[in-house]
Amino acid sequence: MAKREQWFDLSGKVAVVTGGASGLGYAIARALVLHGAKVLIGSRTTDKVEAAVKQLRRETETDAADSSSPVVAGVGLDVTNEASVAKAMQRAMDHFGRLDVLVNSAGVMLRKPTFELEPADFNRIYDTHVTGSLRCAQAAGHLMREQHAGCIINLASISSFVDLIEVAAYAAAKNAVLGLTRSLANEWAKHGIRTNAIAPGFIPTEINRSMIEKTDRGRRILEHTPMARFGEGKEIAGAAVFLASPAASFINGHTLVVDGGYMASGIGDSVAWWTGSGSPQVQQQQMQQ
Ligand SMILES: NC(=O)c1ccc[n+]([C@@H]2O[C@H](COP(=O)([O-])OP(=O)(O)OC[C@H]3O[C@@H](n4cnc5c(N)ncnc54)[C@H](OP(=O)(O)O)[C@@H]3O)[C@@H](O)[C@H]2O)c1
């Protein structure tokens, strides 16, 4: 029988996932573990992180509760605080002895008409998404440079490319995430570090559920999405596994859009058919209005 290529095997790799206790970060952490990596997840709410670590261990069946060498660990982490970031990266080194993959998934959202947007609001969003990703990338990058190997994955967004109305601070930050991604890709490749981004479409999570589920905004998004549904966390996690894996060894500075075709759609063709039988998700959205 032909030997199988281990293209997506992450055995021996260690990852830090910021914002890894919920939503896309959690789905990504889970997928990385299922592909062989050891993972440290972190966010500000330590109870949530602890619960997520337990759930990850259960779902991936990797660690016995009393295991002396766990595959999943958690840490309290605030990406807006440099000392907290340094502590988290050190925790990864203490637990696992190396650091190969950083996923910057910590994020916050603010919807506000732009006339009412305070500079302080704007700066807070920027500090989490952009400066936070930079802080984590620098702290992880120093360790990766020592190993001459590493991979950074930033979470961009559809709003890195098009306006999503009344989320100007978020959109500006997500545009900047692309600039940061390209800068790191260009500067750090010589240190063996690849940097890429994933731009997810619309995945209902804590950050956006109230904005897009059973709302007029959500209906309009679905009308514009050729696949006529929202995505799932595991569909973003697949892209992260790919970018972290040997299969993506020549991919650097790229932004992988994972959106069910939203960005490809000029005129939402689904508008024509959801008025008839339509997709279940679009119908449900319509019925609830
Ligand atoms: N869901 C989508 O449709 C979508 C689409 C495009 C892009 N994204 C991006 O994907 C990333 C993950 O979002 P999500 O959908 O998974 O939302 P989520 O479930 O709300 O996850 C975001 C996580 O970030 C953590 N966080 C917020 N501020 C932090 C800070 N200062 N330091 C450390 N952790 C922090 C939050 O936990 P704590 O409150 O405990 O800190 C939370 O667990 C974000 O960057 C988001 O912008 C999401």
Describe the structure.
This protein has helices spanning 23-34, 46-60, 82-96, 119-147, 168-188, 209-212, 216-223, 233-244, 270-274, 280-287; strands at 14-18, 38-43, 72-76, 101-104, 150-155, 193-200, 255-258. It has 289 residues and is of the alpha/beta class. The chain has a single domain (14-207, 230-266), classed as NAD(P)-binding Rossmann-like Domain (Rossmann fold, 3-Layer(aba) Sandwich), CATH 3.40.50. It has a seven-stranded parallel β-sheet with strand order 3-2-1-4-5-6-7, with helices on both faces. The mean pLDDT is 93. The structure holds NADP nicotinamide-adenine-dinucleotide phosphate. NADP nicotinamide-adenine-dinucleotide phosphate is lined by residues 18-19, 21-25, 43-45, 48, 77-80, 105-108, 128, 132, 155, 157, 200, 202-203, 205-208.
In short:
The protein is an alpha/beta fold.
Order of helices and strands: EHEHEHEHEHEHHHEHH
* Percentage of residues in DSSP E strands: 5-15%
Give the domain tally: 1
What general outline do the C-alpha atoms trace? globular
Strand arrangement, major sheet: 3-2-1-4-5-6-7
Strand tally is 7
Helix content: 40-55%
The largest β sheet comes out as: 7 strands, parallel
Sheet/helix structural class: alpha/beta
What's the end-to-end separation, in Å? 57 Å
Figure out the total of helices: 10
Q: Please compute the radius of gyration using only Cα atoms.
A: 19 Å
Show the helix and strand layout:
Layout: E1 14-18, H1 23-34, E2 38-43, H2 46-60, E3 72-76, H3 82-96, E4 101-104, H4 119-147, E5 150-155, H5 168-188, E6 193-200, H6 209-212, H7 216-223, H8 233-244, E7 255-258, H9 270-274, H10 280-287
Parallel strand pairs: 1-2, 1-4, 2-3, 4-5, 5-6, 6-7
Helix pairs in contact: 1-2, 1-8, 3-4, 4-5, 7-10
Bound molecules: NADP nicotinamide-adenine-dinucleotide phosphate.
